[in-house]
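Sharing a chain and its predicted structure for anyone who wants a worked example. Both blocks are below, sequence first, tokens second.
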Amino acid sequence: MEADWSLALGVLIFIIAIIAAIIYYLRYKKWFIISYVASFSVLIFSIFYTWDVLSLEGLGVILLLGASAVIMIVLGKHFSGISFEEDKVHTSLKEKEKEKKVK
């Protein structure tokens, strides 16, 4: 049966990455790292799975890695260009006090 090793490796990478992200979250209280690690480990899993299912060798592996890198670069550029307006309703008390002092 194909894709046995890639499935096991992908699940192992995902579990290790999520545990590391949860430890990071508990230490620094930053939620975004969990989503970054989860998406990155899913990317690695999908690359390994595609590699195994299509029985890629040599140049095929390099092309697969290159294509996934290009896709991630393009998506990163696209999403980094999106600007979000500041939400005045959900500002912290410290920020509200700072705004009062400035005015």
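Comments welcome. The chain has two domains: 1-55, 57-103.
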